């Protein structure tokens, strides 16, 4: 995984490469059975070069700990590896340029379950345009890997009422994780 990160960290395929401070590849256990995929680095992530280190990242860490795991036991990454200016939403062309990197990361990690954080992660991985509110709470598949979409932690900071649904979603992620590991898959 480190070799792949080094190989692509100089990416200049889209204009985001010109405004980034750091290429934000991913963080955690490269052999993790559970992967969290977000949409793009924010301000703090761009500065530190690691995903989910700002306020949303602190909430994600608490969520991971609430399902009795440590952040070091999972892998965390985003679709985009560079920060969109002003924390705007990723544009389709940017997703198109970065998605092969995410696909390769997932191929290398071989997780047993993926938790897609937010609309862009869920829609990109599932190849559909269904709203996150309709995707969440159910098991979907990314190839043969079980995938559970839920709200992005940044959305939870703006809409605390969604925390209950997110808690249900991550409990489902944990249940799948436990089942897949006990089945020896």
TrEMBL record:
InterPro entries: UDG_Type-4/5, Ura-DNA_glyco_family4, Uracil-DNA_glycosylase-like, Uracil-DNA_glycosylase-like_sf
SMART domains membership: UDG (SM00986), UreE_C (SM00987)
Keyword 4Fe-4S included in the entry's annotation: yes
Keywords: 4Fe-4S, DNA damage, DNA repair, Hydrolase, Iron, Iron-sulfur, Metal-binding
UniProt xrefs under Pfam families: UDG
Signal sequence, start to end: none
Biological process annotations from GO: DNA repair
GO MF: 4 iron, 4 sulfur cluster binding; metal ion binding; uracil DNA N-glycosylase activity
Catalysis: reaction(s): Hydrolyzes single-stranded DNA or mismatched double-stranded DNA and polynucleotides, releasing free uracil
Enzyme class: hydrolase
Protein EC: 3.2.2.27
Domain Uracil-DNA glycosylase-like: from-to ranges: 25-171
Family: Belongs to the uracil-DNA glycosylase (UDG) superfamily. Type 4 (UDGa) family.
Protein name: Type-4 uracil-DNA glycosylase
Organism: Candidatus Edwardsbacteria bacterium GWF2_54_11
């Amino acid at each position: 995984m480190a070799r792949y990160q080094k190989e692509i960290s100089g990416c200049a395929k889209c204009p985001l490469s010109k405004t980034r401070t750091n290429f934000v590849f991913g963080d955690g256990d490269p052999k993790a059975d559970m992967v969290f995929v977000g949409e793009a680095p924010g301000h703090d992530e761009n500065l530190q070069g690691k995903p989910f280190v700002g306020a949303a990242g602190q909430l994600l860490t608490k969520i991971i700990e609430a399902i009795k795991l440590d952040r070091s036991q999972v892998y965390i990454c985003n679709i985009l590896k560079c920060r969109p200016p002003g924390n705007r939403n990723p544009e389709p062309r940017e997703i198109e340029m970065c998605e092969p990197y995410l696909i390769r990361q997932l191929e290398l990690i071989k997780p047993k379950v993926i938790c897609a954080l937010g609309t862009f992660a869920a829609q990109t991985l599932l190849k559909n345009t269904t709203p996150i509110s309709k995707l969440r709470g159910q098991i979907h598949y990314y190839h043969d890997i079980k995938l559970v979409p839920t709200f992005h932690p940044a959305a939870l900071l703006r809409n605390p009422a969604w925390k209950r649904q997110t808690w249900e979603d991550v409990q489902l992620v944990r249940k799948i994780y436990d089942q897949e590991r006990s089945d020896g898959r």
